[in-house]
Automatic annotation (TrEMBL):
This is Probable ATP-binding protein YbiT. Residues 2-260, 328-541 form the ABC transporter domain. Keywords: ATP-binding, Coiled coil, Nucleotide-binding, Repeat. Belongs to the ABC transporter superfamily. ABCF family. YbiT subfamily. It comes from Draconibacterium aestuarii.
C-alpha cells in the first residue's frame, strides 16, 4: 500500500537513515521502535511528506489516505467539543448538502427523460453510496462513542475546547483522526495523554480497525496488544520482523549474540589484514598481495554493532530511613475548586513498605490527593504523616524546580554523596544523557529532558516515602525498566500515579481507583484489578440490558405496527440468531474460566513445575478469555439494538 524505497536522510555530516526500505501493507499493525534520537518521529514525517529525504522515494497511491497524530500539534479553541470533533466528518457533511441540493433539483424537474435528469439521478446514487460508505446518518453515534471511549463525558460535548487542558485537547485531535478512518494511521506516542480506561478503549479500536497502523510508543503493553509486526530503527537501518514487541526483544537478544560473534571474527580478520599491509607495504615482492588486501578491505561490508546500553547498571535508591508502621492516614478528605467538587470523604491508610498505585480517569483527583498528602493544597478532613516520614516527591511539573544555570552533571553532582559520585556518568547515560550532553545547561533542555534529570535527583535523595506523579511520561523503555527495578528494590514506601500498565505490573500490591469523587481500594496487582473490572463492567451491562428490557416492555407503544410483517419477521430471526450466539459465547467463557481456575490452583500449589509451557498456556488462556469477553459485550450491545428496533 505504502512503499519506502532506499530512504536516506542526512543532517550536516550526520546520517540518520541509510537506505531504509519496507512496505506498509493493508491491515498491518506495525510497532516502530528504537532508542530516543534513532529517528522514529522523523520517519513518520518522511512518510507524511512533512520531511523530505536526502534520497529515495515514498510511494503512496492516490486513493490511499493517511492520518497522522504527532506528539505536539497546533490546537484550535474557537468551537465546542462536539463542533470541533464534527469537523472529522467534513466530507460526509458536504456530500449530504450536495445530495439534498440534487434531490431538490430533481424534484423540480418535470422532464423525466432528459439527459440532464438521468445524469442527476446517477450522480445522486453515486454520492449516496459514498455517503453510506463514510458512515451515513450514523456519524453522530460514532462521534459520541469515540468521545466517550476517550474519556469525555456527555456533559463535556457543549463545552468550548479552550476550557480543556492541553492533554484533553490532544484527545480531541485523536478523536477527529480516528473518526476520519484513514487507510493508514501514523500515531506518535498516542497514549501520552490517556488514562488506563482510554488506552484500553484505543487498543480495542486499533485491533479491529480495517486499515493499517504504524505506532510509535514506549508503552510495552500497548505495543504488544496492538502490533503484530515490529520495525526497529538502529544505526540508521531498519530490522523488520513479524512479531510483537516482547517477542522481538527476545529475538533481538539472540541475534545480538550471533552478530557479536561475527563482528569479533571480522574485527580479527581486519586486524590481521591491516598488520599484513603494514608489514609488507614497502616490499616489492609482496606488492600484488598488499594491493589485493587493500582492495579486500575497501570492499568489505563491515558489521556494525549497536553500542551496548547500560543493561548491567543496577541503580538503587539509598536505604530508606526507619519510620513508623503507618506512613499516611487520611480521614474524610474532601476537596473542591470553587463549585467543582473533586474529592468527597476519602479515607485512606498507607503502611510502611507498601507499593501503592493511584489510577483512574484524568480529572478524578489522583494528583489532587497526592498534593494534599504533600500539604500543598487546602482541604477539609484530616491527614497525618507517620513518625519520621521523609517524603520524596516527583510532580508532573518537577522539571520547573531545577536550577537552570547549572549543567546536567552539576545538577546531579551537588546532591550525590559517597560511592555514587563515581557512577554519575553511568547514571546519566542510563537516562539518555551521554557524552558532551552532560555539560549542557539545564535551561537549554527540553521538557522531557528536564523531567528525566529531576527523576535522577530524586533517586539519589535519602527518603522513606516516594510519591511519583506520572514518572514515566518522558522515559524510554530502558529508563523505565531501570526506574522500576530501583522502586521494586526500594525498602521504603511508594505511591505512584500512573497509567503505564507494564510499569505498574509486578511493582504495586495495592491500587486505589479514583472514580466519582471517591477512592476505592483494591488489593493485588494491576492486571488482576483490570481483569476484575472487566467482569464488573460485563455485570453492569447485563443489569442495564435487563433494566432497558423492562422499561421497554412497560412503555411499549403501537409504533411497531408501522413495521411490515416481513420486517418484523426478519428482525425476530436476527434476534434469535444473536441469542443463540450469545449462549454459545457464554458457554465458551464458562469453560475458559474453569480452565484458568484449575491452572490457578496448579500454579499456586507447592508442586515443582517442570513444564514451563504451562505458564505460556496460562497467559494465552487469559488473553483468549479477555478477547471473548470483549466479543460477548459487543454481541449484547448488538442484540439490544435489534430488540429496540422491534419496538419501533
Amino acid at each position: 500500500m505504502i512503499s519506502l524505497d532506499k530512504i536516506n536522510l542526512s543532517f550536516g555530516g550526520y546520517t540518520l537513515f541509510k537506505e531504509i526500505s519496507f512496505l506498509i501493507n493493508p491491515k498491518d499493525r506495525i510497532g516502530l521502535i528504537g532508542k530516543n534520537g534513532a529517528g522514529k518521529t522523523t520517519l513518520l514525517k518522511v512518510i507524511t511528506g512533512k520531511q523530505n529525504p536526502s534520497s529515495g522515494n515514498v510511494v503512496i497511491p492516490k486513493n490511499v489516505t493517511v492520518g497522522y497524530l504527532p506528539q505536539q500539534m497546533k490546537l484550535t479553541d474557537s468551537r465546542s467539543l462536539k463542533e470541533e470533533t464534527t469537523l472529522a466528518f467534513e466530507e460526509l457533511l458536504q456530500l449530504d448538502k450536495k445530495i439534498a441540493k440534487l434531490n431538490h433539483e430533481i424534484a423540480e424537474n418535470d422532464d423525466y427523460h432528459s439527459e440532464e435528469y438521468l445524469n442527476k439521478l446517477d450522480l445522486v446514487t453515486e454520492l449516496h453510496e459514498r455517503y453510506q460508505m463514510l458512515g451515513g446518518d450514523n456519524y453522530e453515534a460514532e462521534l459520541e462513542q469515540t468521545l466517550l471511549g476517550l474519556g469525555f463525558e456527555r456533559t463535556d460535548f457543549d463545552r468550548m475546547t479552550s476550557e480543556f487542558s492541553g492533554g484533553w485537547r490532544m484527545r480531541v485531535e485523536l478523536a477527529k483522526l480516528l473518526l476520519k478512518k484513514p487507510d493508514v494511521f501514523l500515531l506518535d506516542e498516542p497514549t501520552n495523554h490517556l488514562d488506563i480506561e482510554s488506552i484500553q478503549w484505543l487498543e480495542d479500536f486499533l485491533k479491529t480497525y480495517s486499515g493499517a497502523v504504524v505506532l510509535v510508543s514506549h508503552d510495552r503493553t500497548f505495543l504488544d496488544a496492538v502490533c503484530n509486526r515490529t520495525i526497529e530503527i538502529s544505526l540508521g537501518k531498519v530490522t523488520d520482523q513479524k512479531m510483537n514487541y516482547s517477542k522481538f526483544v527476545v529475538w533481538k537478544e539472540e541475534q545480538r549474540e550471533v552478530n557479536l560473534a561475527a563482528y569479533r571474527n571480522q574485527q580479527k580478520m581486519i586486524e590481521d589484514t591491516e598488520q599484513f599491509i603494514q608489514r609488507f607495504r614497502y616490499k616489492a615482492s609482496k606488492a600484488v598481495q598488499v594491493q589485493s588486501r587493500i582492495k579486500q578491505l575497501d570492499k568489505l561490508d563491515r558489521i556494525e554493532i549497536e553500542e551496548e546500553d547500560n543493561s548491567a547498571l543496577k541503580l538503587n535508591f539509598p536505604p530508606a530511613p526507619r519510620s513508623g508502621r503507618v506512613i499516611v492516614e487520611a480521614k474524610n478528605i474532601s476537596k473542591s475548586y470553587g463549585d467543582l467538587s473533586v474529592l468527597e470523604n476519602i479515607n485512606l491508610t498507607i503502611e510502611n513498605g507498601e507499593k501503592v498505585a493511584f489510577i483512574g480517569r484524568n480529572g478524578e483527583g489522583k494528583t489532587t490527593l497526592s498534593r494534599i498528602i504533600m500539604n500543598e493544597l487546602e482541604h477539609t478532613g484530616t491527614i497525618q504523616l507517620g513518625h519520621n516520614v521523609k517524603v520524596g516527591y516527583f510532580a508532573q511539573n518537577q522539571a520547573q524546580l531545577l536550577n537552570e544555570e547549572l549543567t546536567i552533571f552539576e545538577t546531579i553532582d551537588e546532591i550525590a554523596v559517597g560511592e555514587i559520585r563515581t557512577k554519575i556518568r553511568d547514571i546519566l547515560a542510563a537516562f539518555l544523557f551521554k557524552g558532551e550532553d552532560i555539560d549542557k545547561k539545564v535551561k537549554v533542555l527540553s521538557g522531557g529532558e528536564k523531567s528525566r534529570l529531576a527523576m535522577i535527583r530524586l533517586m539519589l535523595e535519602p527518603v522513606n516515602f516516594l510519591i511519583l506523579d506520572e514518572p514515566t511520561n518522558h522515559l524510554d523503555m530502558r529508563s523505565k525498566e531501570i526506574l522500576k527495578n530501583a522502586l521494586a528494590n526500594f525498602t521504603g514506601t511508594v505511591l505512584v500515579v500512573s497509567h503505564d500498565r507494564d510499569f505498574l505490573d509486578g511493582l504495586v500490591n495495592c491500587i486505589y481507583e479514583f472514580r466519582n469523587k471517591k477512592a476505592k481500594q483494591h488489593l493485588g496487582g494491576i492486571f488482576d484489578f483490570l481483569y476484575r473490572k472487566k467482569i464488573e463492567s460485563l455485570k453492569e451491562i447485563e443489569a442495564k440490558s435487563s433494566a432497558a428490557k423492562t422499561s421497554r416492555q412497560e412503555s411499549k407503544v403501537k409504533s411497531n405496527n408501522e413495521l411490515t410483517f416481513e420486517e418484523r419477521k426478519e428482525i425476530s430471526k436476527t434476534i434469535s440468531r444473536l441469542e443463540k450466539k450469545i449462549i454459545q459465547t457464554e458457554e465458551n467463557i464458562a469453560e475458559l474460566e474453569e480452565e484458568i481456575e484449575e491452572m490457578d490452583k496448579l500454579l499456586s500449589s507447592s508442586a515443582q513445575l517442570d513444564d514451563h509451557s504451562i505458564f505460556e498456556n496460562y497467559e494465552n488462556k487469559k488473553s483468549e478469555l479477555e478477547a471473548i469477553l470483549h466479543n460477548w459485550e459487543a454481541e449484547h450491545e448488538e442484540l439490544e439494538s435489534w430488540k429496540l428496533k422491534k419496538t419501533w
